[in-house]
Amino acid sequence: MRILISADMEGISGVVDPTHVTSTHSEYQRFRQIMTDDVNAAVRGAFAGGATQVVISDAHGNKTNILVEKLDERAEINSGGIAPYGMIEGVEDRFDAAMFVGYHACMGTPMAVLSHTISGARVANIWMNDRLVGEFGMNAAVCGYYGTPVILVTGDLAACQEADAWVPGIEQVVVKTATSRHSARCLAASAAQKLIEKDSQHAVERLIAGKAPRKLQIPAPVKFVLELHHSAQADLAAALPGAVRLDGRRIAIPEGEMPAAYRALRAAINLANA
Ligand SMILES: [Zn+2]
Question: Which residue in 40, 136, 149, 163 could disulfide with 215, CB within 3.0 to 4.6 Å?
Fold first, then answer.
């Protein structure tokens, strides 16, 4: 029973402010420790539930947040930026299930801590086959392409609700409830981690019992539409071969199988550096 854990930072216990997730800020050092603790709680639960291998994908910023010296010794980690599959590095190894820890809601969601989609500075909206999508939906869809269901999400209430809309019945750990984009009523980190451990174990037990949520499968060809914040960003993103400029701020990404479309989308966002 092999589990992939994708760990982002905005949905980690106690995170509410941009300083908490910005590596150059002194506050960040506290929250990377808490991120490591949230991930370790999910790892403990996964092994208690019957997992035999757990691989983590550090999924925030430059992807070197989790403290490898504090990581549960049974787990391995994909660490470091520019990995081919980004937030879900390792996914092509076809895990039995994935867990998304510390996730946040998509750009524009009301009452959602640090909501954004891939890049707060560049991306206004992304649609996947005409449905508005955030990081949860697109990462779950790539997992689904490789036969992997997403069985657990942790984050604020809005992130968990977004996850449940894509994967009905997914195990959810609500570690905080936002009162604005930069504020939330939070559980104590230790209390949140007890819940993460318990629900992670339960999620793997459900999987083994054949009661896991279904994998998210998006029919090919997958069509992403990317809306940037302003037209100069769209000018740059439109240089992606095969991209079609729809209007001032929107680009249609070349259609294809899920992994190719996902890579093309990320390439277009990387180009939009204006
Ligand atoms: Zn994110």
Answer: 149
